[in-house]
Amino acid sequence: MKTALSFIITLCMTIPPALFAQTTQPAASRTATPGEQWDQRFDRAMYLYGKEPVAFLKEKAGLLKKGETLCLAAGEGRNAVYLAQQGFDVTALDASKKGLVKCTALAKQRGVTVKTIVADLSDYDMGKEQYDLITDFYYHDQKMFPKIMAALKPGGMFIMQNFSIDQPKTNRFGPKNPAYLVKPNEVLSHFSGYRILHYEDTVVNLDEGMHQGAGAVVRLIVVKEGVE
Length: 228
Hints:
By secondary structure, the chain is α/β, with parallel strands linked by helices. The protein has a single domain, classed as Rossmann fold (3-Layer(aba) Sandwich). The chain has helices at residues 2-14, 17-24, 34-42, 55-60, 78-85, 97-110, 144-151, 167-170; strands at residues 68-72, 89-94, 115-118, 131-137, 152-163, 194-208, 211-226. Strand 1 (68-72), helix 5 (78-85) and strand 2 form a beta-alpha-beta unit. The N and C termini lie far apart (91 Å). The model is unreliable at 4-24 (pLDDT under 50).
């Protein structure tokens, strides 16, 4: 017994202190990435927000420029798949792999093809003059707006619908952090040099899976055309 104890003491003395600390201290917990967080939400058979497109997109689809289309924060793909059904050449981008797997499954179910890209929008390079149409539904980040307009071809269009600052007092769903909610006239300042076809700050009735009932939203359609 004494020999075994002496061996353990000798072994501990030969291990560098830094390495010994690594082997004895518990590993620090890691914060899940946005993609991982959404993977957890989308990891179920049901489509959280349904399989049908945002009503505003459906209402305005005939107005939108067809061609190369980028759907930002595409989630489970309901809007991307709808646009593909209307003849748009669609790429769906989202941080969630599981969401985009469901997007691909929905596209196959509907008999269309949607390309997918797994990426974090906070640092994704959309390129220059790549797209005829870019969509953004329920993902508000003002820092994206210059990138979006740069990524549009001349004459290209941007359509969005995001929750407004009034959403927390309108209904229980949607972001609670004011940074993710659109303030009055906030988006207009970012597109003052372009042609704005549609702008609305309103309350509508939503029927989108977990979005049920009144929703305070801001709606926008912008064309990459200069205005005098």
